[in-house]
């Protein structure tokens, strides 16, 4: 059976439109399917979990943005059912990082007939993330974005991916950098004046920012980007370079790779996983090699 989990609210209603289009294609092609619509945050986790316990499911296709893909992945972890996706959100970084076509008909093709493969995932508290997590400035930006009214308007204008840039400037003037101590694969390091730490499984987050340009979702490690010892003004100047991934050559950036990471900080750093708030420091992240099937 082919299952769809649809977040009609994603991308400010884009999820609904994409589903209507996909539904028409499925009927035209005479493809049998089942569909469940999410009714609230975290509902997709419950739905995917319950589907994963049924026999005869070939694929679960998420229609929504990164939040929906994150939830479906959390529901499917531990099963052999692959996750497919048809992007309908504001950021769609998962689709960008895994070459899922933007056009719904092509994304549907890939989800139905593409090759099943395993990717790494990263566990953080009791959740897993597939794109990236971020602590500090990043976590605050994710929190502000999720609550933002301008998200709706920017989505409406087809500029949804700029939500994070608007939030960046909102958080910039109030945020205070902190002292951080990390243990990565048993090696301890300290950093002062830390703005953010991003841990990435794919290069993109925040609507196309290439935060860890070398991240690969099947290499058994996550990539870490630490931004520290930089003034607010220089941070603003660095932002455009993040879209090209060339920020990593700046001396305010430290990049690392690892399988296990513990982060402690003088003041708590809000933490997001795939754009959803998952806690605050102290926090531990562990790679689960080949932990999820995708298609
Ligand atoms: N019926 C619903 N009503 C309101 N929110 C919902 C509903 N179903 C799911 N959600 C929540 O909507 C949130 C946003 O969804 P999603 O991330 O897929 O879209 P987006 O924010 O537009 O896209 P992106 O994450 O790519 O920027 C998710 O955190 C999800 O839990």
Automatic annotation (TrEMBL):
Belongs to the diacylglycerol/lipid kinase family. It comes from Brevibacillus halotolerans. This is Diacylglycerol kinase family lipid kinase. Keywords: ATP-binding, Kinase, Lipid biosynthesis, Lipid metabolism, Magnesium, Metal-binding, Nucleotide-binding, Phospholipid biosynthesis, Phospholipid metabolism, Transferase. PROSITE patterns: DAGK. Residues 1-128 form the DAGKc domain. One of its GO terms (molecular function) is kinase activity. Transmembrane segments: none annotated. Its cofactor is Mg(2+). It comes from the Bacteria.
């Amino acid at each position: 059976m082919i299952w769809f989990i649809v977040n009609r609210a994603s991308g400010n209603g884009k999820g609904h439109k994409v589903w209507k289009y996909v539904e028409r294609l499925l009927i035209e092609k005479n493809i049998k399917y089942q569909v469940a619509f999410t009714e609230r945050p975290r509902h997709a986790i419950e739905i995917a979990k319950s589907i994963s316990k049924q026999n005869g499911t070939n694929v679960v296709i998420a229609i929504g943005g990164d939040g929906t893909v994150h939830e479906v992945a959390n529901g499917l972890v531990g099963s052999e059912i692959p996750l497919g996706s048809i992007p309908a959100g504001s950021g769609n970084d998962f689709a960008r990082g895994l070459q899922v076509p933007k056009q719904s008909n092509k994304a549907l093709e890939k989800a139905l007939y593409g090759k099943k493969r395993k990717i790494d995932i990263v566990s953080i508290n009791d959740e897993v993330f597939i794109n990236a997590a971020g602590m500090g400035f990043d976590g605050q930006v994710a929190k502000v974005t999720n609550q933002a009214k301008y998200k709706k308007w920017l989505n409406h204008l087809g500029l949804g991916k700029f939500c994070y840039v608007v939030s960046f400037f909102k958080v910039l003037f109030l945020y205070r950098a902190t002292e951080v101590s990390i243990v990565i694969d048993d090696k301890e390091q300290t950093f002062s004046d830390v703005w953010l730490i991003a841990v990435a499984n794919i290069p993109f987050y925040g609507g196309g920012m290439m935060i860890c340009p070398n991240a690969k979702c099947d290499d058994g490690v996550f990539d870490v980007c630490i931004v520290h010892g930089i003034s607010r003004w220089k941070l603003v100047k660095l932002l455009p370079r993040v879209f090209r991934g060339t920020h990593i050559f700046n001396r305010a950036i430290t990049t690392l790779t690892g399988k296990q990471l513990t982060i402690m900080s003088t003041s708590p750093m809000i933490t997001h996983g795939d754009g959803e708030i998952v806690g605050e420091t102290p926090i531990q992240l562990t790679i689960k090699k080949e932990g999820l099937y995708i298609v």
